[in-house]
Amino acid sequence: MAEENSQNANAAGGSQAADQNKQQLQFAVQRIYVKDISFEAPNSPAVFQQPFKPKVSLDLNTSSRKVGDDLFEVVIKVTAQVKHSEEGTTSFLAEIEQAGLFRISGIEGAQLEHTLGAFCPNVLFPYARECVDNLVNRGGFPPLMLAPVNFEAIYAQKKKREAEQAQQQGEQTTQ
């Protein structure tokens, strides 16, 4: 009976330790905001007087930085440049930096890097997408609905490139 009580106490203690770890693990969106926004239509109004035949060029980057205790800023920068497909003149250029403040604790190392590089951008992208669409529409152009982005795949490609670069540098230093 004493052994049974001891085992139950150990199990309860182990359960309390697990509960404390769960309590220490924290992820919360503190704020989502536009950090920078720009729209240019350098060839207007002439661009509106011809048939709209767009050729879209899209650039997407993410970055993150620690701004306080357990507080991180993640930024998605979207640049959409649309040119007339036949003439090559720029119809418009839209840039947005969609940012978010995230409180993250209990996550460290590679898991934190993954959270900042893939999970947080997934949270922010719908806001960036809506902002670009709205900006382009306010510029007098048809909506530009950006396709969903797989930030998990982008993050995996980035890690693969970094590993390949590290391997190449390692090979160069041994030669």
Automatic annotation (TrEMBL):
One of its GO terms (biological process) is protein folding. Pfam families: SecB (PF02556). It is found in: Cytoplasm. InterPro entries: SecB, SecB-like_sf. GO terms for molecular function: unfolded protein binding. Gene3D superfamilies: SecB-like. Keywords: Chaperone, Cytoplasm, Protein transport, Translocation, Transport. Its main location: cytoplasm. It comes from the Bacteria. Residues 1-18 have a biased composition (Low complexity). Residues 1-20 are annotated as: Disordered. SUPFAM superfamilies: SecB-like. Belongs to the SecB family. One of the proteins required for the normal export of preproteins out of the cell cytoplasm. It is a molecular chaperone that binds to a subset of precursor proteins, maintaining them in a translocation-competent state. It also specifically binds to its receptor SecA. Homotetramer, a dimer of dimers. One homotetramer interacts with 1 SecA dimer. This is Protein-export protein SecB. The gene is secB.
